[in-house]
Structures are given as structure tokens and as C-alpha cells.
Amino acid sequence: MANLSAAVNVITTDGPLGRAGMTVSAACSVTDTPPTVLVCVNRSSRSHAVLVGNGRICVNVLGDDHADLAMHFAGATRVPTAERFATGSWDHDTHGVPVLRDAAAALVGTVRSARDQGTHTVLFVEVDHVSTRDGGGGLVYFQRSFHPVGTSRLSA
Predict the structure, then answer these.
(1) Which pLDDT tens digits describe the chain residue by residue (156 residues)?
(2) Which ranges of the chain would DSSP assign to H, the alpha helix?
(3) Are 24 and 11 in contact (CB under 8 A)?
(4) Residue 155, domain member (yes or no)
(5) CATH number for 125
(6) Domain count of the chain?
(7) pTM (2 decimals)?
(8) Which end of the chain has fewer CB atoms within 10 angstroms, the N or the C?
């Protein structure tokens, strides 16, 4: 699995069970009608119950300048979950969940279903709001490291 490159995302939530966020690389588009993404969350994560229980999340797709933020929300900096939102610029009010203002993209939606598979829960999230940032690149996880990716175009 270390050779399966993937976009790096910080999944965030807020609601009756509190505020939480975690770094994940297992997130992707499922369908465009209705707009739906899936996010895989390890059931042993402290944020799992909060993400599932609140039922509303944001998939913050990280840009090429967010490696430190990814480490922070992955727990590598040992900062408690409640204090992680002190890093970065967050909009906590507009959509009811924390949205990273300078994310490459932010997809806000409601968990419509969840399925346990092995050690993880697959959340199917129906998206009701998308924002994107112009310019900048993305961040991918490959061979257990973060790598920035640019926006250069391929020629045929």
C-alpha cells in the first residue's frame, strides 16, 4: 500500500459530539449525481466516533504547502485534537464544520451511509458545497512521505 499514491486530506467535523479532525489519504469521488465522495476512517482513531456521530464533514484537500498541517492532524506533533485547529486559517461558521480557507479544495457534505470493512469504516458523503483555490499545487502521500505536486500540463 505504500506505493499507492493518494491525495492528502484533513477530514473535519463539528456538532453534538464535538469538533474533530484527522489526516486521511483514502478519499475519492464516487458519483456526480448526487455528488458523493467516500472517506475511509480507521475505527481505532479517536476521531472516528465523532466523525460518524456528527454526520457532517468537510474533506479539506491539502495543497502543496500543507505538509506541516497534514502532520499536525495525523497526530505526529502530539498536539491534542481540540488544539489542532489553532494551526491554519479555518472558517468554523459558514457550513457548520471547519473548512480550511486555503485548501486546494474543500468538499462539505452529509454522511449518507457508512460501511465497516476490515479495520475501517467507509463513509459515503453527499456533497452540498465545494470551494477551490486557484493556483498552487496539491499534496500526495507516496512511500510513507508527503510530496508536493505542481500544476504543469502534460502534452499529448
Answers:
(1) 776 778 899 999 999 999 999 999 899 999 999 999 999 999 999 899 999 999 999 999 999 999 999 999 998 888 887 789 998 999 999 999 999 999 999 999 999 999 999 999 999 999 999 999 988 888 988 778 788 888 666 556
(2) 48-54, 67-73
(3) yes
(4) no
(5) 2.30.110.10
(6) 1
(7) 0.92
(8) C
